[in-house]
Amino acid sequence: MLILTRKIGESILVGDHIRVVILEVRGKQIRLGIEAPSEIVVLREEIAQRLSNENLRAAGFNYREVQQAVSALAINFVNRLALRPLRPESLTVTINSKALGQVTVAEDHIITFAAGLPGFPDEHRYVLINHQLESPFYCLQCVDNPSLAFVVVDPAALVPDYSPRNGAGVLTELHASSPDDLRVLVTLTIPPGRPREITANLMSPLLINLEQGLGKQVVIDKPQYSHQHPLISVK
User: Fold this and answer.
1) 209 is in which domain, residue-wise?
2) Rounded Cα gap, residues 210 and 113, in angstroms
3) Which pLDDT score, from 0 to 100, does residue 38 have?
4) What pLDDT digit, counting tens, does each position of 119-145 carry?
5) Residue 77 sits in the same domain as residue 176
6) Does residue 3 form part of some domain?
């Protein structure tokens, strides 16, 4: 670990594009200013760990309990995510999914998350599958790790005014010309044995450009969005 001593107003350079400035020292607290390119995510460590832990929990679902939880929600949602049909000439990949069994998907339906997902940084290729679930619910199945999958949903079905802001850096990274090119999904967590305690991670949505096959999980560090938003009132 590199240890440096700095005064208020002095800065530290990390690589060529990140600058950390000491703004204020107040008791045991230090205020930092961080200048970084928009494509670099800067998070407080506890937030990053919270989101990583939530993804780990979300991946540990039982598919039967997913169906129970979805049935209990009784959502009437008209906007549907248009998954392209499998073309006869498409190359395919067969996945022996732990959650779904054997599924065959088209290679041109694969969505690449270049940075991975928090908690799973080494897994990059996923595909959306509508398997015995009705829109707006889907499975996001990892192509290269059959044991890894998430249940995801269009957040507009849960929170009608949900509107994460997409920065220009994210649009560029996903090869999107406008926010309308991106689909927004959020992961669901279904605690084992307690399907009615299902929650949605509104704090860290998935932005997906279906046409380009690119995705990114971003962070909305706002108090109105929780990483464990309850969907059913449990009495």
Assistant:
1) 45-230
2) 12
3) 63
4) 999 999 999 998 777 778 899 999 999
5) yes
6) yes
Highest mean pLDDT out of 1-10, 84-93, 99-108, 117-126: 117-126
Q: Which of 219, 183, 180, 188 is nearest to 203 (CA)?
A: 219
Task: Report the amino acid identity of residue 138.
Answer: Y
Contact 104, 171 (CB under 8 A): no
Helix (H) or strand (E) holding 101: strand 101-106
Average pLDDT across the chain, whole number? 84
Looking at the fold, whether 144 and 198 belong to one and the same domain comes out as yes
Phi then psi for residue 195, to 5 deg, are -60, -25
Q: Please state the pTM of the whole predicted model.
A: 0.81
Task: Specify whether 30 is located in the same domain as 127.
Answer: no
pLDDT single digits (tens) 191-206: 999 988 999 999 999 9
**One domain for residues 199 and 152:** yes
In total, how many domains does the chain have? 2
The verdict on 25 and 78 lying in the same domain is no
Q: What are phi and psi of 169, to 5 degrees?
A: -65, -40
Residue 235 lies in a domain: no
Which parts of 130-215 fold into alpha helices (H)? 168-173
Tokens for 191? 């605690």
Which residues are CB-contacts of 187 (< 8 A; sequence separation ≥ 6)? 54, 55, 58, 140, 150, 151, 152, 200, 201, 204, 206
CATH number, domain containing residue 52: 2.30.290.10
Higher pLDDT, 129 or 86: 129
Distances (CA, A) of 97 to 57, 100, 144, 204: 18, 5, 10, 24
